[in-house]
Design a protein that fits this description.
alpha/beta
């Protein structure tokens, strides 16, 4: 391998070093190296993603690595979005500044939403709750907002421990068990304010299965015969490849098809939706509902057929608006054009701000979203820069934000307000 290419690979690997300081120092060196060697990526002006997970929830990327991966894919802006945590936001912001990118910081939560009994809404495993996010948290309020989230992270860990017990009950007959502290907690960034998710539990289990079976046909046989899991031909190739750097993530992808045996409904770790919305607004963020939509023939090929909110979407959107949610987040690659046409009409009818965001949490996912090059979704690029503008303006005070009284009076028409804040966002990286 060329010496320069090896050096570049080493610097990229160092973006996941153990400390924030090491990661940012490596990014600085990597930027200088690429600039000196003319290795800047082609820019994708009509692309964005405001929902990138990092190691502070579950992801193969540190905040610095996530920012770089978005940059290397050609994106000119990106957004961090970790579960129940803003602990990676400062590193992410600093990395994006170094890369000359627009950026936003936010957190994703599961919130209690039992205002009507619709069953499952946009959460595959639980009824009467919703995934939602707080976008565009201004820098001066990150610590205070994160302190609010810390209580929910602590409650989540209590449930995590109970779910580990259920995993161990099922796998006891195979002589396999997980130690919460050693195999789960230490695998996470919980000690630095990160959250522990169900994916951490499955990742720990995947590690135990690798220890037991290795990357062999015996593993495939165990998955199919003992666990009754379906393993496709491509997955079999991945799981028996001794050189596969993504093995744990690929095995996790198989294991996540069956979580019912250990999943315990979240309760105390979930804020009430009104409480979360009010807290987000207090700290200058824009609360958003994350649209999932029914899955038939999966557009992305990675979802099983399942019903979600489409049957009651009109009524749901009205209820979402009534609790003070200001935005709807979605990504064109996740749904059909018919689904998105309907959703976008409802956004227009009810005055919702539209945000692009497809969660990135595994190494095989691409950071670019080619569907955004379609002119029909050009508004999502405008809204991304408006979101960036909101965050930058709110750093002067939350009263300068996009949905604050001042902006709503000055620009009562949402589209005019988006254009005004888009200008602020784009000028912030010049």
């Amino acid at each position: 391998m060329d010496t320069n290419e090896q050096k570049r690979k080493n610097l990229i690997k160092a973006l996941n070093s153990s400390t924030k300081e090491e990661r940012l120092a490596s990014l600085k060196e990597l930027i200088a190296f690429e600039d000196a060697n003319g290795l800047q990526p082609a820019r994708r002006e009509n692309d964005s993603n405001n929902h990138i997970h990092t190691i502070y929830s579950f992801s193969p990327y540190s905040p610095a690595a996530a920012a770089y991966m978005a940059y290397s894919a050609g994106l000119t802006s990106c957004g961090i979005m970790d579960h129940d945590s803003l602990s990676g936001s400062k590193e992410f912001a600093e990395a994006c500044k170094m890369l000359g990118m627009g950026y936003t910081c936010g957190a994703e939560v599961r919130a209690k939403f039992n205002r009507r009994h619709w069953g499952k809404i946009n959460h595959p495993d639980q009824e009467d709750c919703i995934y939602m996010s707080a976008h565009g948290v201004p820098a001066q309020n990150v610590d205070a907002f994160n302190a609010y989230l810390a209580g929910f992270r602590a409650k989540r860990e209590l449930r995590d421990k109970k779910m580990v017990e259920l995993i161990n009950e099922k796998f006891a007959k195979f002589g396999i068990s997980i130690d919460f502290q050693k195999d789960v907690y230490e695998r996470s960034m919980a000690a630095e304010g990160g959250s522990i998710t169900e994916r951490h539990l499955m990742s720990a289990l995947a590690g135990k299965l690798e220890d037991r079976f290795g990357r062999t046909e015996a593993l495939i046989e165990f998955l199919e015969k003992d666990l009754s899991l379906s393993v496709g031909a491509k997955q079999k190739g991945y799981l028996t490849d001794s050189e596969n750097p993504n093995f744990i993530y690929d095995l996790l992808g198989v294991l996540k098809a069956d979580t019912k045996f250990f999943y315990i409904d979240a309760d105390e770790e979930m804020p009430d939706v009104v409480d979360f919305v009010n807290t987000a607004v207090k700290y200058g963020a824009i609360p958003a509902y994350a649209y999932l939509g029914d899955v038939g023939d999966s557009v992305t090929g990675d979802k099983r057929a399942q019903k979600f909110e489409d049957d009651f979407l009109d009524e749901l959107i009205e209820e979402v608006k009534s609790v003070g949610i200001k935005a709807i987040a979605y990504m064109p690659t996740r749904n059909t054009e018919a689904q998105l046409d309907r959703l976008r009409e409802l956004c227009k009818k009810h005055g919702f701000f539209e945000i692009s965001g497809e969660d990135i949490n595994s190494p095989r996912q691409k950071f670019e979203c080619k569907a955004l090059a379609n002119p029909r979704y050009a508004n999502l690029i405008d809204s991304t820069w408006a979101l960036i503008g909101h965050e930058r303006a709110s750093e002067k005070g939350v009263e300068f934000g996009m949905f604050a009284e001042k902006a709503e009076k000055e620009y009562p028409d949402l589209n005019e307000r988006i254009l005004a804040f888009e200008k602020i966002g784009r000028e912030s990286v010049k």
